[in-house]
Each structure stands twice: as C-alpha cells, then as structure tokens.
Amino acid sequence: MTTTATPRRSETSAAAAGGLVTFAAVMLFISGLLGIFRGIMGIAEDDVFVTTPNYVFKFDLTSWGWIHLILGAVAVLVSIGLFSAALWARVVGVGIAALLLVVSFLSIPYSPVWSITLIALYSFVIWALCVVQRDKFTGRAG
Question: What's the rounded Cα separation, in Å, for the pair 21 and 117?
Fold first, then answer.
C-alpha cells in the first residue's frame, strides 16, 4: 500500500502571497483615496479636467465626479477588508478594481495620462488578488 504525501507549501511562498495581497491592498487604498479626490474635483467643477465635446460616452464633470467619489470610497473600504485577509474583500476587490478600470478607460479623454496610469494599477490589483490561492491568503493549511 502506497501513501502519497501532500506536498506542504513553503513558508516563503505563503509569505510572498501575503505580501502580494498586502501590496494590492495598499495600491487599492491609495487609488481609492485618489479616486475620492478626483471625484471631489469633478463635483466642484474644477478646471483640472479637459472637456471633449464629441466624446461617445459623454457625461458632465459632476456625474464623473460622483462616480469616482463613490467607487473610490468603496475601494478604500474594500482595501481595509484586504488588510484583515477577508475572503469577501478579495472577491469584491477584484470587482471594484474592474469597475474602476472601466471608469478610468471611459475617462481617458478627460485626463489621459492619469487614466492610463490607473488602468495599469487596477490591472495589477486584479492580477494580485486573483493569483494568490485561498490557503496562502488566509494563512490556513490545505
């Protein structure tokens, strides 16, 4: 009778996975704060944004401001959940990062360089939250 031993994951890979999620949480927190500030600028109708009259997805700046403000606040709350290693925060974190990625894509005409930078950041957050296995994320074995 042969028995197969379940390979144990190394502590180094578990620490790396935890570090990856922590880094994603920090990035989501920072980008959420910046989204809140971006929302406030849009709501205040600041002259920071460029207006484009012939854009397919036309919203006024106040609408964009509220969208960024709400999604930024949700991102900050989810990142706090990620710091406590909550599984729900991982799932919601992927969803909110995807929504923020789409919103950043739609706001490229208003602030192109910043939007493209945020798209790259949100892509990394999605990758970091999806690549880590559940047992490495929560610190539980098998």
Answer: 20
Statement: residue 2 has pLDDT above 70: no
What are 63's two structure tokens?
A: 């609408």
Rounded Cα gap, residues 56 and 61, in angstroms:
15
Q: What is the DSSP string of 19-52?
A: HHHHHHHHHHHHHHHHHHHHHHHHHTT-TTSPP-
Q: How far apart are CA 97 and CA 105, in angstroms?
A: 12
Distances (CA, A) of 56 to 39, 52, 108, 109, 116: 21, 10, 12, 10, 18
Q: Which amino acid is at 117?
A: T
Structure-token pair, residue 77: 């709350």
Q: What percentage of the chain reaches a pLDDT higher than 70?
A: 70
Give the DSSP H or E segment for 110: none
CA 127 to chain centre: 10
Rounded Cα–Cα distance for residues 137 and 52 (Å): 43
Q: Rounded to two decimals, what is the model's pTM?
A: 0.74
pLDDT digit string, tens, across residues 12-51: 555 555 678 888 999 999 999 988 988 898 888 766 665 6
Q: How far apart are CA 121 and CA 86, in angstroms?
A: 21
